[in-house]
Amino acid sequence: MSQASFEPVIGLEVHAELLTQSKMFCACPVVDTSHAEPNTAVCEVCTGMPGTLPVVNGRAVEFALRAALALHCQVAETSLFARKNYFYPDLPKGYQISQYDLPLARHGWLEIDTPSGARRITIRRVHLEEDTGKLFHRQGASLVDYNRSGVPLLEVVSEPELYSLDDVKAYATALRSLLRYLDITTGDMEKGAIRFEANISLRPTGSRTLGTRTEIKNLNSFRAMLRALEYEIGRHSQILAQGSPVQQETLRWDDVRGVTYPERGKEEAQDYRYFPEPDLPPLHIDQAWLRQIEASLPELPSARRSRFIEQYGLSPYTAGVLTVERAVAEYFEACAAAAPEVSPARLANWLSGDLFALLNEHSLPIESCRLSPTHLAEIVRMVEQGTLNTTSAKAVLAECFATGDPPGDVVRRRGLLQLSDQAEIDKLVEQVLAAHPMQVEQYLQGKTAIGEWLLGQVMRAAGGRANPSLARASLDQHLRELDESRRTR
User: Fold this and answer.
1) What pLDDT score does 319 carry?
2) DSSP character for 182?
3) CB atoms within 10 A of CB 486
4) Which of 301, 314, 339, 485 has the fewest beta carbons closer than 10 A?
């Protein structure tokens, strides 16, 4: 059977570090492990010293409930923490406190946009657990930093309802966007704030029976996740086409070599010997508190996208681009409020085009942008009013982005006000035509492409400030008059 004869079936487990000030079960501060000195934000509890007792972080529970409600889950009135037993150097207690039989929430959904249309992906469970430490392998030795040990983790588990790499990307992007809108995680994948684990199996196209799955652990970027899944799809297809069985196992992704490799045989729940955490009582959720949390939820990405389409007349694609990140959506709305007379579509184009290009070039988030929404709106307003042409506006945008100066100051300082005086433009056109008689003659003989070159000379003579429409109209008129004069000789 060919690779096309099989259909991938994928489920994702997404782990997100929560933006609490302290750890999940102790008072140790949550620190940036990429900068903090190793093993400085630790105590007896998060390093698993005998005789210590955990205490649940209420803020972490609140953040998890925000996610569960935003994902339309059924929140359990009572949930349990459990011990997930396994032995690894970055797990100081020899077990991880997590939730299993009775998680915080179940049976939700997340809507995603795919090339074939919108689909709802079922959320199997949302629960809380603690993060592990971090291993560093250097010069033949392994070192461990326990600063991350005990940091609150939110785990969101989907049902295996993703059938393509497009589905996976859409789901992962939508979930990360939602969690960032809720302001419960940074979503910084470079620092491991969100990590993915993917379960994948293949089945004959049209079959409803699931195949043997493999699990790929600790994928910390969209690119790594998609590359790993693409590799596994090819590997599974080749094995199945040969009539051999796929081995159920846990895999790691080697991003340098572009291959997966076995870490261990795939564990089942019984291998972890789950049992209720004896040092923590059941977690009871007060319903009045739950309603209060629900009332505090912000407008979520899908709702904001729909509103942008209806309120501002944006295309679904543009509205989607502007609402992936909450800060971008708020920046756009501030622009629209600052210039209600300006076309929202034009504001959106300048934001998602020229400003995004500058942000990407300088690796800056929009929150760090010196160009305020009011200033971007002013630049676009000047373009619509004819005060600036597009070329000059791009130059003003770049300078305002670099300096934070008001656009009006930059325009005056650089003498960029658009030239719209018809008499002055006519004079420039006449000067250009007189200076380039050979090109004018070629144009009159039928080489009309030279007209664009002549227009460029007019714009250059005007220092880039001439109104392009007026300059083109004047040039066309002068060339017509020359042609008519030539014919009547």
Assistant:
1) 96
2) T
3) 11
4) 485
Range of the domain at 445: 422-487
CB atoms near residue 30 (< 10 Å): 22
Looking up residue 447, the CATH number of its domain turns out to be 1.10.10.410
SS3 of residue 138 by DSSP: strand
| pLDDT beneath 50, residues of the chain | 1
What values do phi and psi take at 195, rounded to 5?
-135, 145
HSE-up (13 A, CA, CB side) for residue 286 = 6
One domain, residues 219 and 338: no
Same domain, 269 and 309: no
> Of 414, 449, 476, which residue constitutes the final position of a domain?
414
Regarding whether 335 and 429 lie in a shared domain, the answer is: no
324 and 445 both lie in a single domain: no
- Predicted pLDDT of residue 165: 96
Question: Could you tell me which of 458, 453, 452 has the C-alpha nearest to residue 389?
Answer: 458
Q: For residue 224, what are the contacts with CB-CB under 8 A and spacing of at least 6?
A: 253, 255
* Region class of 192: left (phi > 0), else alpha (psi between -120 and 50), else beta: left
Quick one: pLDDT at residue 421?
A: 63
> Are residues 384 and 241 located together in one domain of the fold?
no
pLDDT at position 263, please? 81
Closest CA to 279 of 93, 145, 149: 93
Instruction: Identify which of 375, 378, 371 has the alpha carbon closest to the alpha carbon of residue 342.
Output: 378
Position 21 scores a pLDDT of 97
DSSP state of 34: T
CA proximity to 113, closest of 174, 154, 71: 174
Q: Is 412 helix (H, G, I), strand (E, B) or coil?
A: helix
- Residue type at 374 in one-letter notation: T
Do residues 359 and 402 share a domain? Answer: yes
d(CA 102, CA 79): 5
List, for residues 244-288, the tens digit of each pLDDT value: 999 999 999 999 999 999 986 656 667 778 999 999 999 999 999
Residues 251, 391 within the same domain: no
Asked if residue 267 and residue 212 are part of one domain, the reply reads yes
How many residues are listed for the chain in this entry?
Answer: 489
Q: Residue 4 has what pLDDT?
A: 58
Number of other CB atoms surrounding residue 282 within 10 Å: 12
Per-residue pLDDT tens over the stretch 187-210: 998 888 999 999 999 999 888 899
Rounded to whole angstroms, how far apart are CA atoms 328 and 334? 10
- Residue whose structure tokens are 């100051």: 409
**Sheet with 6-17, edge to edge strand ranges:** 74-75, 105-114, 117-130, 152-158, 6-17, 194-204, 214-219, 249-254, 259-265
Q: Which of these three, 272, 293, 314, is where a domain ends? A: 293
Q: Could you give the CA distance from residue 185 to residue 147 in angstroms, rounded to a whole number?
A: 18
Backbone angles phi, psi at 15, to 5 degrees: -110, 125
- Spatial neighbors of 3 by CB under 8 A, at least 6 apart, are 233, 234, 237, 238, 241
Using the CB atoms, write b or e for 49-59: b if 16+ within 10 Å. Answer: eeeeebebbeb
